[in-house]
Amino acid sequence: MQNYILRIVKDDWEKQVFALKAYYAGVRRGWEKGSTIFLIKKTESGDAFIGYGIIKDIASLDEMDDKEKEMCINNNWNRKLSFGKLVRFEPPVPVKDTVVGKWGQKGALLHGTPISQSDIESITKIAKTKIML
Fold it and tell me: Ramachandran region of residue 112, left (φ > 0), alpha (ψ -120 to 50) or beta?
C-alpha cells in the first residue's frame, strides 16, 4: 500500500478537509483504502504538515451527487478521498524540520509524492499535539 503527501492551497479547502473529513484530489494516483495521506500547507514559516488522514473510502465523479460532481469538475478534481481517521497537528510541523525537508522536492512538487511508513512515523513523533477528528 502506498502513502502520499497532498498539498492544500487555500484556507477554505483546509477548512473543508477537516469539516468533511475528505480531500478532493485532482492528482491521479493509485489511491487505496487504508493509505495514509499527509497534508501540507504553506504557513508563515514555510510549508508545514498540518495533519494526516487514513483513507476509508474513494469516490469517483460517477459516484457523487450533482452538486459535488459540479464542484469537482470546476476545480479539476476527479476523486473524493474520505478519511476514517483524520488528525490535525497543532502547531503544524514545518517540512524543513522533517526528513522530507532533506528531499529534492520542495513546495508544490511535494503534491502527490509517495511517502514511506518510516518517514510517516518520524513526522508524527515530531508533532507536539495531535487532535483526532
Answer: left
Residue 74 has which C-alpha cell?
A: 470546476
Report DSSP letters for 86-124, one per residue: EEEEEEEEEGGGSGGGGSS--GGGGTT-EE-HHHHHHHH
User: In terms of residues, how long is the chain?
Assistant: 133
Q: Above 90 in pLDDT, residue 56?
A: yes
- Kind and range of the H or E run holding 64: none
pLDDT at 105 over 80: no
Give me the mean pLDDT over the 66-86 stretch.
Answer: 95
- Does CATH number 3.10.590 belong to domain 3-132? yes
SS3 (DSSP) at 18: helix
H or E element, residue 83: strand 79-94
